[in-house]
Amino acid sequence: MLLGFLLLAGLLSAQQRNESRTGSLSSPFVVHGGTFALRAAVIQEGDTMNASLNKLTGEVKAEGKNAIVIELLPAVRGKSSRIQPEFYAIPKEQGGGYRLQVNVRLARGGGYVRKDLHRMMLEMLIIERSLRGREQVAEVEVKPWLVAGLEEAILWQENRGDRRVYISLAKSGGWLEVSKLVERSEIQSIDALGYELFRASAGALIMALLDQAEGNQAMGRYLAEAAIYEGEPLALIRRHFPEVNLGRKGLEKWWSLAIVKMAEKPLSDSMTIPETDKRLDQILRLHLYDDQGRPVPQPLDLWEQLATLSKEDRLNAVRPTVDLLTSLSYRSFPTYREVIVGYLKVLGDMVNGLPDEIEESLVNLKAFRDGELSRYQKVIDLLDWYHLSTVKEESGEFEDYLKIIDKLKEQKIHKNDHVTRYVDQIQGVFERSQK
Hints:
The protein is of the alpha/beta class.
């Protein structure tokens, strides 16, 4: 509440000094034009974006901040909203520094595309960091992957990230190659689905870099050069993130691990009964090896093979399964937790060479699982029955579908070309053979 009051006080003081200008106390943004309410809304969005970026990467302490001017231009009849950036150096005799400006032509009614303005604000904040305290920079460029990646990382930082696209990426391995991602200079030619893939890939790379030792501080130093660096994009990443200085394959390894991590469900998300049972089928294995040391996983039913092994080898054979069962217990369906405990006890009996109760325990655990699956299916059938039995009115959609088929059958298109005559002859022969 106090922060909001201070922000409002700052905006009001700016409003009193200049009727068409509103500046921020905590970010580089200055807004011209439009109504005071609209300028205040834009400033607040800019402050939020600036605070989120500082939290993610740390604030650059260099002197000589440059203002980022957002010019709100009136709507033009027949034209949609447009956002256009500008950048130029200010001569020394006029004070020096740089002018960063975003021209926002408002749509009819004073609106604009918020996500486009947010993206442009983020790009301008990156440019401003790179220019801070520097002189004589002829041009700037922010690669699209950096803006998209930071935008995605900010969403995840605020617990607003969507992991569904990362689940798809993790299953298909469909993320973009790092070199193609960071070197791309334009994204206007890709469609909406392609941009989601691009943004998710960029977000995973940013997250992988932030996960390195002192990753937040390193990202802050990286942003201080990103917009003005003229060399190979990957070289700048290697400079500020030496832990991933393992060539492109090494960077892609960190990156793919970040994608898998982002695709994982949080521990608070419980699995369904079928999901839990399927996962049990996947992990209930004895991890044995042949004479050449090659892994030969075996089902638990073949536990008698452990009898010839030493206790240490038996422990090594069940340890991966113990770890996986422990991890599964956090997200399994609640009634399956006692099943997991039962399997852990069975594995312990296998290690300690106590065969008397192993066979019976495995049978009882499987019977419990089968019972759970049966009860789950009965519940689903009951819900289906309830839904069908409580329908008050038939939609008639299926009858309409049948009517369409009948109409199509009635429609006969008469042609007298060679292809039609040939098809008719073949159809006649087919019908006679059927009779």
